[in-house]
Design brief:
With 742 residues, the chain is an all-beta fold. It contains no helices and 70 strands. Strand 67 and strand 68 (714-715) form a beta hairpin.
């Protein structure tokens, strides 16, 4: 082609006009003739710079190339162009030729070259590197340039130190170098794609000397105490050598990264022993030191402990150091008593005097192996007890099994607290039986007296309260008497514990009221979930069936107002059999019929028909009767639990068949089918119906005739039809007409 794009870098033999957005390029013309004028025209395209016509009259001297015996003139145009968008950019180049011999004459003429330049996305050079940040270490550089739509084919790396001394110039998408000993390495990458488009990225890689970590730590080194670890690493004054991070490993599962210049790290150990402490430091360039390790011996700290006494102004006040030995060695003691005499003590156990009732502060410092622990507690020296008193808070009467409740009303002479109380619940019989209780917020205490003997009268008990504010400060209340009533006892018998539904059970009350007083007794019977009675000895008819547990209960309130316990008994209620017989059964004279109940239900039923006259069996559920006269039968059904049901059926004798002479099968529910009463008496009978042409339209064998006036599923027309009924038991054949009305 006569027009060629020329970039600063060689392309990969691209045979078409192409460049990249924002990449400067020149134009090269390859012509078979010489020219003395060149005009480049981008048609004022605003995406091209410059976009006005470029006229070259001082045409540069061409180079000459021979191809296939033909001479070509190669012109390198001096102007540089740039395009700021992708796509096709039209270009026209007008050239004026010279010295062209045509038919023996030397002529010159204009020639117009027309083409388009394909502009692709720009190359964006970029690279990354992996470096330890230390001098004289391996650094890996990797190209991450983007060149949308056009592959890269050349990379130009340049590396220079801080004094701009050339280090290396290499090709390839990945570079690995080592041996840099300067603080800063200037790195430049020029990435070139197949079109010759290029982009440049520069960066400075900072390096530092590898530091040597060092540290010390504070003493004493005790468990449960903060220990300060100080970073003492020293480096040169070069900015790159400045430390940025200190990485601590305290050998107890705790690792800590601290941002320098903070040089102190704090850690606490909860167990004694030798700890190998590790420190690594990192410079501003990321160059990490080796790990420095030092041994730190952690000694066990004592745990200071003592109990505050519960005392009053009349007591000797003793404090005892309860700190446990550490590794078998006892700790030393130092007491501080604010307001006490003496105010300090080094004794394990010492007696201190406090002048008055008040609240004081005590501090204990325990020491072992140079390790200390302290504890501060506040305690109160209580005043004397001013008054011991209580109220009995139960509503009356107090009936067993409920406890007696008392409410403490004791007071002190001044601010303080009650340390303990003792209660004698039966002063009369057991004056030395005291129960010690600790004061609570409700000030309420309770006691359940042993059950009184059955039938015994109410018993009286004397109660006394002793209130303490210390060991030697106490007072006893005046005794108070409480009367306790026995709990009434419920008891009853039932006339029977298994019945049939609807039967009545009589209950006989034999409860002990535990009272000799006269007065009303409130009885409370419960039968199942909802029914109840307030009679002394009621009767109850059970209708709900089931094998119940504790479905009957009795409790009551006696003459003294005490609630009894509850006595339970189980009554099983069995269901009655279900029986339903047809009220009236028609039987043709000389016939027989099976007596089948309409409904019957029950388990393991026994049957008894009466009277036995004309019956095939009296103990089956469905006997056959051949009675010749009207008769009433009774069926008695007995279940496995002896529950009984009875019902009756009346057998009416018909002298002859009663045959309807018309019916109306129109679906109105009235006479829709042709039925023959009493035909049930002739189980082998046959019924035939013919139309007026003698065609058989209905036939039936058996005693259950129920014709709907159809033939082969089709409705027969209104009209008269003719029937013949053969009893097939020796009796004469019945015949006649039947009319279908619609």
């Amino acid at each position: 082609p006569p027009i060629k794009i020329v970039n600063p870098y060689e392309s990969n033999n691209i045979q078409y006009l192409a460049t990249c957005k924002q990449t400067p390029f020149n134009i090269q013309l390859i012509l078979p003739y010489e020219v003395n004028k060149i005009v480049v025209d981008f048609f004022n395209n605003t995406a091209v710079s410059p976009n006005s016509k470029v006229e070259i009259t001082n045409v540069p001297t061409p180079s000459i190339s021979m191809s296939n015996g033909k001479k070509y003139y190669i012109y390198q145009l001096p102007d540089t162009f740039k395009v700021n968008k992708t796509g096709y950019i039209p270009i026209n180049i007008l050239v004026k030729s010279v010295n062209i011999i045509t038919e023996g004459c030397i002529n010159s003429y204009d020639n117009l070259l027309i083409d388009s330049i394909l502009v692709k996305e720009s190359v964006t050079a970029d690279f990354e590197y992996i470096s330890s940040g230390c001098k004289d270490s391996v650094i890996k550089f990797r190209d991450i340039t983007t060149s949308p739509g056009t592959p890269l084919f050349k990379w130009n790396w340049q590396f220079r130190d801080i004094n701009d001394i050339f280090i290396n110039d290499s090709l390839g998408s990945m570079m690995i170098f080592s041996g840099f000993i300067k603080d800063s390495i200037f790195t430049k990458l020029t990435a070139i794609n197949e079109l010759g488009c290029f982009s440049t990225k520069t960066s400075i890689v900072l390096l530092s000397d590898k530091p040597t970590a060092n540290f010390n730590f504070s003493t004493p080194n005790c468990t449960n105490t903060n220990i300060n670890f100080t970073n003492t690493t020293s480096v040169s004054n070069s900015p790159n050598n400045q430390l940025k991070w200190a990485i601590w490993d305290f050998n107890n599962g705790v690792k800590l990264d601290t941002l320098l210049p903070n040089s102190i790290a704090t850690n606490k150990y909860n167990a004694s022993g030798d700890k190998n402490i590790g420190l690594s430091v990192v410079t501003a360039t990321g160059c990490a030191s080796n790990i420095a390790i030092k041994k730190c011996i952690i000694n066990s700290s004592p745990t200071a402990a003592f109990s505050t006494p519960s005392v009053c102004v009349n007591d000797l006040i003793v404090f005892n150091d309860e700190t446990l030995p550490v590794n078998g060695l006892p700790s030393t003691t130092h007491w501080y008593f604010a307001g006490g005499i003496p105010s300090e003590s080094l004794q394990k156990k010492d007696t201190i005097v406090f002048a008055s009732a008040n609240t004081y502060q005590v501090k204990l410092v325990a020491s072992s192996n140079g390790c200390n622990d302290s504890i501060i507690k506040t305690f109160t020296v209580n005043p004397d007890v001013q008054n011991a008193d209580f109220d009995i808070v139960n509503s009356r009467p107090i009936c067993q099994p409920f406890p007696v409740k008392i409410l403490d009303k004791s007071t002190l002479t001044d601010a303080g607290y009650i340390t303990k109380q003792q209660i004698i619940w039966n002063v009369k019989e057991h004056p030395n039986d005291t129960i010690t209780v600790m004061p609570n917020a409700s000030k309420e205490y309770s006691y359940r007296y042993p059950d009184l003997s059955p039938g015994s009268v109410p018993d009286s008990f004397t109660i006394q309260l002793i209130t303490y504010s210390g060991n030697q400060c106490f007072r006893a209340s005046l005794p108070k008497v409480v009367k306790i009533y026995s709990q009434p006892k419920s008891l009853f018998n039932a006339s029977q514990n298994a019945i049939c539904a609807g039967n009545t059970v009589n209950f006989f009350n034999s409860s002990n009221t535990m009272s000799a007083n006269s007065g009303n007794i409130i009885w409370k019977w419960k039968f199942g979930q909802a029914d109840s009675s307030f009679a002394e000895s009621p009767s109850f008819s059970f209708t709900d069936t089931g094998l119940f547990t504790n479905n009957v209960s009795l409790s009551f309130v006696n003459q003294d107002g005490c609630l009894s316990d509850t006595f339970f008994q189980s009554i099983s209620v069995f269901p009655n059999p279900i029986l339903d017989l047809k009220d009236t059964v028609l039987l043709l004279q000389g016939g027989s019929i099976e007596l089948m109940p309409l409904k019957i239900w029950g388990d393991n039923l026994n049957f008894q028909w009466s009277p036995a006259t004309f019956l095939s069996s009296t103990i089956t559920v469905n006997p056959i009767t051949t009675t010749v006269d009207d008769i009433e039968y009774t069926l008695r059904v007995v279940s496995q639990n002896n529950c009984i049901s009875t019902d009756k059926t009346y057998i009416k004798i018909e002298k002859e068949l009663i045959i309807p002479n018309a019916f109306s099968p129109n679906g109105d529910g009235l006479n829709d089918t042709w039925k023959i009463s009493a035909l049930d008496s002739y189980p082998n009978a046959t019924v035939d119906v013919l139309d007026r042409y003698g065609r058989l339209v209905f036939t039936h064998k058996g005693n259950n005739v129920n014709w709907d006036g159809s033939y082969n599923g089709k409705v027969l027309p209104m009209g008269t039809y003719y029937y013949m009924i053969n009893p097939r038991n020796g009796r004469k054949i019945a015949s006649g007409s039947i009319t279908i009305i619609r």
